[in-house]
Write a structure and sequence with these properties.
It is built from eleven helices and 17 strands. It is 27% helix and 19% strand. With 418 residues, it is α/β, with parallel strands linked by helices. The strands form four sheets. The protein has a five-stranded parallel sheet with strand order 3-2-1-4-5, sandwiched between helices. 41% of the residues are buried.
């Protein structure tokens, strides 16, 4: 019965089949948490948002591109029913009931056998709040508890006036704990979130149900939402009087086209707040133990975009000058062209034995590091099937280890320094 309180429980879904029907905005919000739980996720939908498609292409879930059909829920432990077809939702709900599968209905909470709570995470604690038919209150209680856990109190924060206009928020390299406090707070106050695929996607699951999430994912070498369309959406939502957050990966001004968006919003008379984020160019190497600078090894580091090849007429990079530098090179968006880039650096004088590290999906649970040299990195990236996003570090800092001797002590290689 609607007035009967739900019984709260934490589902341990690791290795267990979860079926998600529908690949739209609801699935985009809920799938990251389901994947993070270790569930064996089957997505059934004829289409999907770019971010959901990217998860399927990365092997995080299985996607069957079709509509629902009877029998889809027979082996499931849990189901999320979120298609745009009411008849299909009703039929799937009935099947879930028959097979005793707990099922969430995005279109009819009263017809569901399970509800998705407003959830938040802090220091290993998951807070889940249910208030029946009042999801905004659930989200408010959740926010108060999580904020209390983060700052050492459990007092609910005072009501905050919505931030007018657009906030360009740098979400950091991907781990949701690496967004700034200000960025997280602005996200909690938003009416609309326009999110990149490389932003901290787990934070979307914490948003209240009334928040509209616009998928601005740019899948490398796949379909994308043109920058012009993103600019138009930012202006349009802001002029409707809504509080808008543009959630971007890394920092908005480090190869994030953030200034283009600021310029467009400024021309339209829309107030803009820029919230810097942790750039992947520094944080991702750090996550695998690589310092981009180190005393006695590198006195400078240079961040370079590798989205065009060295011989491309559009390139603005002086590869000859970069090859002459002794410090660290950090390449972003360079996975596909790393072979050509390495050849150009060697041709211009950089030592072919220079250490190289390729870090895929840095700071995420799927993070991995592939080591090579400048001479071998192109082949290693192909052999290891490295996929974007990845950060590539070139330089002697790659070989620095935590147990290495202090370069300033007499027993360090090269003698005492200072």
């Amino acid at each position: 019965m609607p007035d009967t309180p739900a019984y709260p429980v934490g589902l341990r879904l690791t290795g267990r089949r979860v079926v998600v029907l529908g690949g739209g905005g609801v699935a985009q919000r809920r799938l990251p948490a389901l994947v993070a739980s270790g569930a064996d996720v089957l997505l059934v939908s004829p289409s999907a948002t770019p971010s959901v498609e990217a998860m399927a292409e990365a092997g995080e879930l299985t996607w069957e591109r079709r509509t629902y059909r009877p029998g889809d829920l027979a082996e499931a432990w849990y189901a999320l029913i979120a298609t745009s077809d009411p008849a299909a939702n009703h039929a799937a709900s009935a099947e879930a009931e028959a097979h005793r599968v707990w099922a969430v209905r995005s279109d009819d909470a009263d017809a569901a056998t399970a509800w998705t709570p407003a959830t938040g995470r802090s220091e290993g604690v998951t807070v889940a709040v249910l208030t029946g038919s009042d999801p905004r209150r659930s989200a408010a209680v959740r926010d108060a508890v999580v904020e209390g856990l983060r700052d050492g109190t459990l007092a609910a924060p005072q009501y905050r006036t919505r931030t007018p206009g657009v906030a360009l928020v740098g979400g950091g390299p991907g781990d949701p704990d690496l967004i700034t406090v200000r960025g997280r707070r602005l996200l909690a106050e938003a009416d609309v979130v326009i999110a990149d695929r490389l932003g901290p996607r787990d934070l979307l699951d914490e948003l209240p149900p009334h928040v509209e999430v616009v998928d601005a994912a740019k899948i490398p070498y796949g379909r994308f939402m043109a920058q012009e369309a993103i600019n138009q959406a930012l202006v349009a939502y802001a002029k409707e009087g809504k509080s808008v957050v543009r959630l971007k990966g890394g920092d908005p001004f480090v190869f994030g086209r953030g200034m283009e968006e600021v310029q467009e919003l400024t021309r339209a008379g829309v107030p803009v707040t820029v919230v810097p984020g942790i750039s992947s160019s520094i944080s991702v190497p750090g996550a695998v133990g690589i310092p981009v600078t180190h005393r006695g090894v590198a006195h400078e580091f240079t961040v370079v975009s590798g989205h065009v090849a060295p011989d491309d007429a559009r390139s603005l990079v002086d590869w000859r000058a970069l090859a002459a530098l002794r410090g660290t090179l950090v390449l972003l968006m360079a996975v596909e062209r790393i072979g050509a880039i390495a050849e150009a650096l060697i041709a211009h004088g950089r030592d072919a034995d220079t250490p190289v590290a390729v870090v895929q999906e840095g700071t995420m649970a799927t993070q991995r590091r592939v080591d090579a040299t400048l001479a071998t990195v192109g082949e290693r990236v192909r052999a290891e099937e490295v996929r974007p996003p990845a950060v590539i570090v070139i330089g002697d800092v790659v070989a620095v280890r935590p147990d290495a001797p202090d370069p300033g002590t007499p027993d360090a290689e090269g003698g005492a320094g200072g």
